[in-house]
Design a protein that fits this description.
The structure is a single chain. The chain contains eight helices and eight strands. The protein has 214 residues and is of the alpha/beta class. The protein has one domain: Aldolase class I (TIM Barrel). The protein has an eight-stranded parallel barrel with strand order 1-2-3-4-5-6-7-8, surrounded by six helices. Helix 3 links the parallel strand 3 and strand 4. Helix 1 packs parallel to helix 2 and helix 1 packs across helix 8.
């Protein structure tokens, strides 16, 4: 899947905490129908075999909707299913090492919370950055908030696109206008919603108004 900056407008990160009798596949399809432009599969507790099986199914789903599909942290699973790439945090594999394993044609995303981390990730070959938490969030207990000023500095300091993440909802997303971000990454704002498709559609419409960084 060819990577374009606009693919980051509405970046949906999965979380099975809110399945409510549904399957993750069904929820991801609802998000895609609503306009999600990028899917990250995040699984912290699945065994490798189940993770690979699930990832393979969702990869095919994302191909159907022509949306990039990356795996959180796990390069081996990404390789096993031929995912479009991976997203790695500061405590995970370096972007340069992920690039060596996955190859030149894959998407590498990196979490960066400072200008220094952003610059290093770009130097190592990252395709985009995920920056946050831009608002208070309960999805990741260890997430520390960063100021919108820092977010703006990070966007200015790199040439690769930046996605904001952390506590973003339809009610606060427009506060990020003018920061230079290319899009927003959301978890609970989509997947915890009673109507995932409608939630994604509303957020997509708002994200399109943010302007982008370039």
């Amino acid at each position: 899947m060819e990577f374009e900056r606009r693919s980051l407008r509405l970046y949906a990160v999965t979380d099975r905490s809110w399945l409510r009798g549904s399957t993750l596949y069904e929820q991801v399809e609802k998000a895609l129908r609503g306009g999600a432009t990028f899917i990250q599969l995040r699984e912290k507790s699945l065994d490798t075999e189940s993770f690979i099986e699930e990832a393979g199914q969702i990869k095919i789903l994302c191909e159907k909707y022509h949306v990039p599909f990356v795996i959180n942290d796990n390069v081996e699973v990404a390789l096993a299913v031929g995912a479009d790439g991976v997203h790695v945090g500061q405590g995970d594999m370096a972007a340069s090492d992920a690039r060596k394993k996955l190859g030149a044609g894959k998407i590498i995303g990196v979490t960066a919370r400072t200008v220094q981390q952003a610059a290093e990730a770009e130097r190592q070959g990252a395709d985009y950055l995920g920056t946050g938490a831009v608002f208070a969030t309960s999805t990741k207990g260890d997430a520390k908030e960063i100021s919108h000023g820092t977010l703006k500095e990070i966007c200015r300091s790199v040439s690769i696109p930046v996605v904001a993440i952390g506590g973003i909802t339809a009610g606060n997303v427009m506060e990020l206008k003018g920061t230079g971000i290319e899009g927003v990454a959301v978890v609970s704002a989509v997947f915890a919603s009673e109507d995932i498709e409608s939630a994604a559609r509303e957020l997509r419409g708002l994200a399109e108004q943010l302007g982008g960084s370039k």
